Fold each of these.
Amino acid sequence: MPDQRTRHRPADERRTAARCTADTSPDAVDRSRIEETARTVFGHELRDWQREAVTSLLGGRDVLLVQPTGAGKSLAYQLAGVLAEGGPTLVVSPLLALQADQVESLTQKGLRAHRLSSAEGERARAEALADDGGRTFLFLAPEQLAREETRRAVAALRPALVAVDEAHCVSSWGHDFRPDYLRLSELLGALGRPPVIALTATAAPPVRADVAERLGLHDPALVLAEADRPGIALSARHCHDESVRREAVLEAVAATAGQGLVYTRTRALAQELAAALRGQGREAGHYHAGMAAGARQRVQEDFMAGRTEVLVATSAFGMGIDKPDVRFVVHAQAPDSPDTYFQEVGRAGRDGQPATGLLCHSPDDFSLARFFAPAVPKPAQVAAVLGALGRTGAEEEGEVDRAALREATGLGERRLARILNLLAEERAHTDGDARTSLVEGVVARAEQHRTLQQTRIDMMRRYAETPACRQRFLLHYFGDEREEPCGRCDSCRSGSTAEHDAAQRRRVEEAGAEGAAWVGRFGVDQTVRHRDLGAGVVVEAEGDRLTVLFDQGGYRTLDAPTVVGQDLLEPV
């Protein structure tokens, strides 16, 4: 979560921001050379956004690139890496399998590519860290940055470009925060600040702002995809008990031809539904983090090859997966946030053909999500971890013996990992290292995280229960201000959206001049300050209702007449 002391947003963060002001004159960037290299080396004609990203990078400008999986994000940094002058291109990615695929692909194109991971031996590592030439790509996972030796060796290569894949992982606003990414800002400084491209498939405006801040991106060119998924017909179904839920899932799968995904929150339900689907004659498999790595790999390969019709999975399946012909995504249970839901349902219909996305939900789903929200550690537990770290003489939490820490503190692995992650995040935001202030800071940060997650759950409930256009709800959440209903979702097809929109217009009209005042005063992306809740950003303005993401209070839906009439909310 952005620290209020250093809060900022990327310059001019609107869809027009992709029209950047980097030095892209013919002298700075040879556009014909870019197009020719794309064709001859990679066999591609560039899309407009790829050309924009490459031109910005070669002109020396940082780039924040938000495009869906499979759209061709990797070509942006690969093409820029081939054309950049100087050292290699450093690619930070958490997906080892994807790293291996890209190393193989680049090698087949006659380029040099290496990977640094736990799977490589010392000889391969030494070879990778000795290759400092241009047209070379070095892939590494963020956890490799925990090793001081690796950081020094990478810095010595003087990379010409740095690509940060799955960049939303650097943001604690994001739904997949990974503290190992926090070391990137320090590393980028040691590298002499070469141009950086941060890539992600999906990110709400606060996440984009936090990514730019955490990575220290300077006036980044923002290249955004349209968040709309025009081929997906969204719907939701309330399930008052588990038998209704099971029936709804099986009916939805039976009604749709082709391959599809069913997402569950629990491993047990994934296995149960896969068995039920097989009982109906469908080729169904299940996937979750509790399976052995080899078994997960086989299940994934069967689905990607089309041998499995329906894959029932937890959220462990999906990052980096690019399968264009998925015809349906069914959520048997509501996920913990619109961020997660949008990413998972967006795996349907990537080929542009019609697809469906059904959300089955019940009040128990949201109670379960609240139960699994990260707990706030006790100050004594944080102090115990700090004391144990001090006794080991370790400078960085990533290099300590976790087993020794568990024994010294009496904490379980999950609780210990949580505290270490919070410590890494707090230290990245503070200059001091006093134990008392660190303990207080960690506890306060954990409380912020929990508040944010609880309000994300509330936003997911709002999506499930909204009588209005579901596609528009998600677009607003991700910063797209369009007001036109999609015409495809269940709310639009039933006429519910039209009724809701008409009621909203009547309320604003009945408010007269006062209604016009609040409509014109607070728009999407407007920075605001609430008398009690502090600073925040408007993420949705619909009729007489405002949804604001507050730095300290998470997502809150406010009644516009009340907050304006009582002077509770002011634009900043």
Amino acid sequence: MYREYKQKLAEKDTPPFRMSRQHGSFPVGKHTRMAEREKLDVLSLLREGLKYGGTGASHVFVILGASGDLAKKKIYPTLWWLYRDGLVPEKTYFIGYARSKMSIEDIRQKALPFMKVKDSEKQKLDEFFKVNEYIAGSYDKPDGFAKLNKAIEEKGSCNRIFYLALPPSVYESVTLNLKAVCMSKGDKWTRIVVEKPFGKDLESSNQLSNHLAALFKEEEIYRIDHYLGKEMVQNLMVLRFANKIFSPIWNRDGIASVVISFKEPFGTQGRGGYFDEFGIIRDVMQNHLLQILTLVAMEKPPTTAAEDIRNEKVKVLKSISPVELDNVVLGQYVGNPDGEGDQKQGYLDDPTVPKGSTTPTFVTAVLMVKNERWEGVPFILRCGKALNERKAEVRIQFKDIAGDIFPSGDVKRNELVIRVQPDEAVYLKMMTKSPGMSFGCEETELDLSYNSRYKDLKLPDAYERLILDVFTGSQIHFVRSDELSEAWRIFTPLLHRIEKEKPKPISYKYGSRGPPESDELCSRFNFTYTGTYRWEKPKM
């Protein structure tokens, strides 16, 4: 999709990586940034790359659960952005379906605060809602689906996308009714988009997968993990397989450890009842972080076709043994008496959380990939709520220099860091001579910060990419059934043991880095944290 854009970038005289020290930065030179000389119309390039399988074909996008939070906060805003930018087929219609008695105007008012509409776009927004409608109906009776199908058929022969923004408890009845009443006819296709959670453990996940497989083909099912739509997650494959410098060292000979982190600075804040049912392992680690791990660890696929990539990801998952509780740290945040506002409230102070709950809000887990490339290299997954910052990143720490000739303690390990959010960036932490008369070493970085290097280019939202992929039929960034099964195989024994034994999580203060025992576990598995260097967002 971005091929033409990348080709134009390659043809331009672009500046090199910025090299910066912790307390300043070296000048980039007299290069004039490409975006300042010529603004590429990236959207037009995307439009040229889209193929919808038949000119003039109509498309209907159905949002099941249109009255819910996900629909108003993510799906309707995303559909609006794609419509605004001309990235959906010309004859595309949108239908919301839910049990609530409401109108399309009600939907509009609920979604509007999240749609980021400029004054100059209000007429376009009116046009968008003219191709929207809403139908109220039951999830378990065919009458409402017959009404939905009638509305779809009024658009003519069309391709159909059904987005299930629904609780898993109604998946079975909804998909049965879709299969019986609402499938496309003739040469037109149907695609089903399913949101997580995909079950609670291996058994329930397999039950859901078997149910869907009995109704739809695998190529019709799009299991969405929105982290796979993020810019820097998608960049992992390019960094790995399009840069020769990484090939010789991307293995157990060069890498000491890999840390994949997800940190949130806020707690459950009144939503603890839902969180307590699933927990942070199911919410973040078993899906988002494990998917990132597969992209870091996978072998080079034969092509960039969806099946080739997903085959390699499955091979990685098959090489991982179930997580052991001995290699896990569980934490739960408590109120910080020195904090402000919500920071004074601990997890158990949330009135929606069951009294005495031992559900962890922080987890560090060590996984080992047992194959020739990664034998002995720990993959450390960390995620938590109510921490000191918002951050998601991949930190690849390389091994120590053999035969270090410099003063003891000066030389630190090299690290390649892929910062997923916020402030997307790729930087390589390395050593350089301290400026001046001394011959000491100093930590510095080769830094590609996206908001500096591509400052005139707006990165699309993850949902924009993924919904666009559904239209184009690309399943590269969606989870296949065997991927899902292997992921649950890795975490189900741990989840069941935690639920059975209810080990008491370690307390950590709201706004801290998490429990110190997490750092101790990382150190035990060959990750060195010195705290001597911190990446700073480059100044514009």
